[in-house]
Amino acid sequence: MHPSQGDIRKTVKQMKRYLLFFVFLAFQYLQAQEVLTFDLIESYTASEIAALGVPDAEYDVDLYTMTYTTIGTDGMPDTASGSVALPILDMNDDPAPFLIYHHGTVNDRFDVPSQGSGESQVGLTAATLGYVGLLPDYLGMGTSRGYHPYLHVETQARSAIDQMLAMSGELDDRSFSYEKKVFLTGYSQGGHAGASTHFVMEQNPLPDYELVACSHLSGPYDLNGVTFENVLSDDVYLFVAYIPHVLLGMQEAYGNLFNEVEEIFKPQYATIIERLYDDEPLFDINQELIGRLILDNGLPVPKAMLQDSILAQLETNPNHRIRQALEDNTLTDWAPVTPTRLVYCEADEQVNFRNAQVADSIMNELGAADLESLNIDPDANHGGCVEPALNYTIDFFAGFRETSNEEQELVSFDYRLQNVNGGIRVMTEEVFSGSIQIFNLQGQRIAENKATQTRSVTLPVSVSGMYVVELRSEMGTSSKLHFYN
Questions:
Q1: Is 29 or 459 the better-scoring residue by pLDDT?
Q2: Beta bridge pairs of residue 87
Q3: CB atoms within 10 A of CB 348
Q4: What are phi and psi of 54, to 5 degrees?
Q5: For the whole model, what pTM was predicted?
Q6: What CA–CA distance (Å, rounded) separates 456 from 426?
Q7: Does domain 415-484 bear CATH number 2.60.40.3080?
Q8: Closest CA to 32 of 168, 201, 166
């Protein structure tokens, strides 16, 4: 009997897990990760960070760029880079856990957190809220060697975990108050990269480190499923350079996909694509490829770049070396034990939202402990999805920190809730100072008021349904379920 495609898929997944386990053991225990350089970029006050759009900014922050030891894609010692944001704590503050943010697809190897890219602000946000914010550049980016192995699970995870291990030693040397609790997130490529780190840390737990919660945002988790189907469809796609970027990256990781780029891509496209090896900006290459596709075919349909023979093989042979590489880095067939959210926007034009839905379906069928996918804004495109996805993640993570804080005990405030035109009125028996928030049943915060010495506050609500109204003060926290009509 011949094995079914499902059996082959399962076997490949098992092989991937064993490979990751032994590779990760090798670089984890045979080399001590350490910080090589650690340089202050700038210091920010909480008020300065609040002015950047973080209304709950609490701590002043020092932002650093760092390099650290790791193992390169070629298996040899390498120097990786990233940024670190540290909250400035005093003796009475709780120790800071780690929040690792994995950045999205960037234009070139220097468009990264260590060089002050736009996503560096996520580190400031994390630190001002009391986390040690870590933002790895990834291998093949920043200071590390070689071509970036784009969407390659093991190397994405390696860059993040090695940065955390190296940073732990640095924080110990500085007597910085931190704890080895870890929160993982990232957007776009970073959604896939964060899930990569999540997968590896669950398959091979690090002694003394606790993975607390993960929120992966708009990531292409289903590389050999949803993403592959999109590439081979007849649909127009305006980010065609992602396809060769993946294949060149997988070639860097595996070394067996091709000998020459022209084996995979037609000559007129291969000539443009090869310039990615010279660090030409990805989005410049993308524009040239789109122009050439329109000239040749009238529309930018990605599969038209592929050699006809390769296209036929990919469509008919699930064991083709390229399909195997994609399968090896598909992050759907496992059951996370850490509380996990897969956040997406249905109007995303770059990463198909079905990546999250398929991952949700398979992971929960396999027995995921606490996993949900959330369509955070159905009308938002890829860029518009960033803010609501990150805001949700901040609130999601905060819940795990607050429930572990002995000062955040549940208390009973005397208050009543009343529906009024356009919202819910909260009326307290005593003068109240603190935070009043309204959440929907998906855990999204939809309204908030910072109350000061008041007995009545109205918060806006526009849609009928069940909501959780939460009051929080120095005395503790109290919540009530309320129906708004």
A1: 459
A2: 61
A3: 21
A4: -115, 85
A5: 0.80
A6: 6
A7: yes
A8: 166
